[in-house]
Amino acid sequence: MTPSLDDLPHGYSVGPVHRTPATRLREMLNSNDGIVTCPGVYDGLTARIALNAGFKCLYMTGAGTAISRLGMPDLGITTLQDMVTNAGMIASLDWTVPLIADADTGYGGPLMVARTVEAYISAGVAALHLEDQVVNKRCGHLLGKELVDEAAYLSRIRAAVLARERMRAAMGDAGDIVLIARTDALQSLGFEAALDRLQKAIELGADVAFLEGFTSVQQGKDACDRLTPTPVLLNMVPGGATPNFTSAEAQEAGFKIIIFPGLMLAAAYGSCVAAAVELKDSGTIAVTEKQRKEGPKGIFTAVGLLDCLTFDKKAGGTSYEGGV
What we know:
The protein is α/β, with parallel strands linked by helices. The chain folds into two domains: about 250 residues, Phosphoenolpyruvate-binding domains (TIM Barrel), CATH 3.20.20.60; about 45 residues, no CATH class. About 50% of the residues lie in helices and about 10% in strands. An eight-stranded parallel beta barrel has the order 1-2-3-4-5-6-7-8, surrounded by ten helices. Helix 4 runs parallel beside helix 5. It is globular, with a radius of gyration of 21 Å. The N terminus is likely disordered.
């Protein structure tokens, strides 16, 4: 007998109820339910925390991936393998929650961009964004960014669209992915040139526009107005080049997606620095009442302990009959 959804662990689905992550994201973009708010996650723990908080879409930050996997800054050091392995792990935690993932420059020329898109689709990623910086890129809110020329940028977008078409032909809906065209041209080429790049990317088949590093609320509104009906993504980096927006303010300005890439990274950094200093200075760490009550099982539960035990029991396993 086919189990009901209520019988399955978190993140599982069966039969006709299944929709691909890209399909789910497209439904969100086409709905009138408001802006899609995405917390930035970078590993399994931060993704689980965001899922447990009830977010309906996640964003995998490239900077967070570089920092967490390599211990290095966001300077174009990560490879396709670094990024797609991390994205695939995060996406697999709950297939019903779409994952938008940074794909940097596509990691090379058109053939490499196509390989990147196909790898992200195979990993279950709902959407990716490609940018127009040189391969040795940097965080979009740092200075001194170098761009490829327009022809090279558009070849990346064209390659991504062609790769998606090839995957759709082979896999149907499972071969779909939402393509987000990002430009960092505003800083060096100006607003009109940046919008022109985005409009040309949309004409080639990009689904969403991403103007990085705009510096005024009016610029953000103008970009949304000029690019309509294409959905526009807002990258919210506190302390970065872009003014601070809440989700409600971003929706009012016309944005359809808002990502907070540094959300978990900043919180983890601050907390971990404080904990390290406390241990170094005092030789111990304070234990909260919650920690004392839950022990390590509290964290294990947050990352799916009960789902694992339930699944093992349904499969006939006996390893955890005595509890954990």
